[in-house]
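Extended Data, panel c. Modelled sequence:
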Amino acid sequence: MTQAQICIMISIVAYLAVVLLIGIGFSKKTKNVGDFYLGGRKLGPLVTAMSAEASDMSSWLLMGLPGLALLTGVADVSWTVIGLAVGTYLNWLIVAKRLRNYSAKIGAITIPDYFSLRYKDEKRILMAVSALIIIIFFVPYTASGFSACGKLFSTLFGVDYHLAMIVSAIVIVGYTTLGGFNAASTTDFIQSIIMTIALFIVVGFGVSKAGGMEAVIENARRLDGYFELFSSYSRAAVTDVGARSPYGFLTIVSTLAWGLGYFGMPHILLRFMAIEDPNKIKTSRRVATVWVVISMAVAILIGVVGNALMANGTLSTLTQSGDAVDKETIIIQIANFLASHGILPALTAGVILAGILASTMSTSDSQLLAASSSASENILGGLFRVNLSETAKMIVARVTLITIAVIGVVVAWDENSSVFKIVSFAWAGFGAAFGPVMLLSLFWRRSNKYGALAGIIVGGAMVFVWKFCIAKLSPVLNIYELLPAFLIGLAVNIIVSLCTSKPSKEITDSFDEVKMMK
């Protein structure tokens, strides 16, 4: 192992030790499943904002976004980022406070809990279906995080991808199993800081080695369609010469639809439910929106800078085996180059790479919590009504979390899987299944359990149908599946609600009470 690799390893090990210590610390404060899954609703405004966005961004902020910008230019990533920025702001503006108040009033600690209690679904079918949706889409989502960790250590140290992935999964599961929601939220807050530092160090160093910002922009403009919002630079690998490809209105609209996904993201919505003081949400909204806009803009710039570094020969487009460099490892390539400049730069590179771990872990821990709560709390305790003591519930919760993580490792076993593509599909699944019903449950008095159930099933199913069937029928229909699935799920929810019985007076009175809360 070289001196640079040792320095990088020191930084990463120090970071991993900190998050495990946090998990151990919070394990003593986690007394029941309410603490484990929702932290006792005691999150402050800053931790709420930063942990919500860190758990949102995942490894695709530092790997997926820069990789896509490197390969195809700014159009695709820019419209995606615009949609996500608007979605972030609107989610905090219209959903956060009302969901916090509604969930606290009815005593819900998970998203399936909320839907079931909101609509008085005594048979708990709504709870079971919601929990199943969460498990279906969160297992591959969590797998994408494990995959990112495996790629990181495999690229850096030549460690076997599968071994690296398993060790990373053990660390993530370790602190999450010990400390639950509070440990995940606190580490997410720390991880958001590390992610921010990593982004700015990479951009600053990369721009300097590319010859300055003018050189970076000039290189991007030389590539036909690369530096435009209404055209893209179409190519399959970084070694290919690309060609201009039109980026039409329908594609732009469907890409902007990424923002719709926020209304249905369980791991983000849980942060809203856990806020201690609803009146401080405005502070959280401002912090979250500013951080999201800046971090995603910098992530795009890393991809553009990486392209310039490859163009001037600073970074190679080929691996040692002669294959094209994986586009999603561009930040790792830049960090490796930085590490070759001495001990301090190598330690700094370790911080950057710890940032990749942070982005991955901050999402994986939240997803594991949401998925395990669905399996243990909502299916075992809710649907099958198994009565357990608080201690037994904690054991079941932790065993379930470990089981789901093992399945995630199996799903991520293929080292050629794309982080961005996996996240994109799972994002669409949650957005289409839960987004419409979440909005209607908070803002439409007439919505009922039949409409909610139909909307969740049709929205989730439509993501599969559109992506694997309808999108292949015509180039015009080959758009991001979230948009059509969300709209169809919304329409079904409304139509079924109107065609079935009105909600009871007890439900509408509860709705009116929450609506009147300040």
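The two ends are 59 Å apart (CA to CA). This feature is highlighted in the accompanying rendering.
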